[in-house]
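Weekly structure sync, notes
Attendees: PL (lead), two postdocs, one rotation student
Agenda item 3: pending single-chain targets
PL asked that the sequence for the first pending target be pasted directly into the notes so everyone works from the same version. It is reproduced below exactly as submitted, 104 residues in total.
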Amino acid sequence: MSDWMNLLRDEIGKSSITVVAARLDVSRTAISLVVNEKYPSSTERIASRVLDVFGKVDCPYLNTHIRQSECRGYSVSAIPTSSPRALRHWRACQKCEFRGEKSC
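Predicted structure, written out during the meeting:
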């Protein structure tokens, strides 16, 4: 089973399909079909949403777990010019092992 499906099932186990669907901005029916492996279409979009919302990355610069969407936001943003702290973070992201990964 794929990582995103494990993440999805774990989150459903912690709350409910309805709550998870709302957090993913996807219909409850779609999530139910995906989890029961009866979704009639590609699950690529849902997999991407699951990883963005529930996936975590160990950020070496911040020394904490952050969402993959946050990681992507830091690493692909334009170079910050008004904040020395933001510039240090951006530079660290440019050399990070997670930069350029499909999930981040």
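Discussion points:
- Residues 3-14 form the longest helix (12 residues).
- Residues 80 and 86 are 6 Å apart (CA to CA).
Action: rotation student to compare against the earlier draft before next sync.
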